[in-house]
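sorry for the late reply, my laptop died twice this morning and i had to redo everyting from scratch. anyway the thing you sent over, i finally got around to it. pasting the sequence first so we're on the same page, its 335 residues, then the predicted structure underneath. double check i copied it right bc i was rushing
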Amino acid sequence: GRTIDTEELVGITSRSPRYYVSAAYWDRDSMTWSFPGLLDCDPALAREALEYALGRQLRNTGIHSRFIDGTVLEDGYQLDEGAAPFIAVADYVRATGDLPWLKRHAPQVRALDSLLQQWARPATGLFATFQDSQDEYIDEPYGTYSMVLTWRALRDLGYLYGRLGDRSAARRALAQAARLNSAIRSACIRSGAPGAGGPIYARATTGTVPRFDETPPGSLLRLATLGFTTEDDPVFARTYTWLHSKNHRYANHGQPFGLPGSFRVPQTGCWNVADQLRLKRGREKALKILLGSTWDGGIVTEQLDPATGEHRGHGGAFATAAGFVAHAIYEVFGK
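ok and here's the structure:
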């Protein structure tokens, strides 16, 4: 929205007090969730949103949440937030061909690169984080989804450096992405999930000890839609089955509107609906939930009751997530 005093465009999770942390900025909320929807319908507004992310918000990119002037609100580095702007910038350039804009913002792209590299672990090829994609500190510093998003970000960084004519930097980014890809498969595909019947993707790992659960804002189901794997890959298919099974504590197994949740987001999350809509295996149920719920008066809400599909509790008027859900609908049906 635009500020009253200066009419500057700022990115916030929601302008409504019905959402429990309105008027604060997250890289993830603005760049991963709302930006794709903006780019679909209004590239000029999407460009302005990028300029805000690469302007006032640049210096603290990746830090949990900030005020609208870029000052830290809640501390703690989140790798998925550090990776988010690369993907948004690359998507904008691919969609619009706006190379002059990219050249003007080359210093900011290099600054983002420098910030991300602070979390690289050269000895293993992995990237670390303090918090997971649902804003919780965890003991395991290597989150599978966050690292896959970083793999995608590094590939996009290689593309951006290539468009800028910096072949050396492009090769370096793509080589780092390839190494991270191998490191993720080595560290994050593990046996031991109860009832899984074979190796699956762990949600996170210490590097040796895996953690088997889920975080809907950064779901393991997104690994296929990010291009890291395919739906019919045996490990991904096994992971999908396990997350929806009674062996996963927060699966909402057997519920008519139930999709996998977590200890922090135990009900069916709006992200789950969007993620499943983009997978052939989950599309029928996702469509049922999408069309069967009243949401929050027709506006996307954070969680839905897995038994009824109705909005429950806080998290109404979830504006940034509306962009994520809308983009999934457009990607599946609009194109």
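The first strand starts at residue 63 and ends at 66.
thats about all i looked at so far, will dig more tmrw
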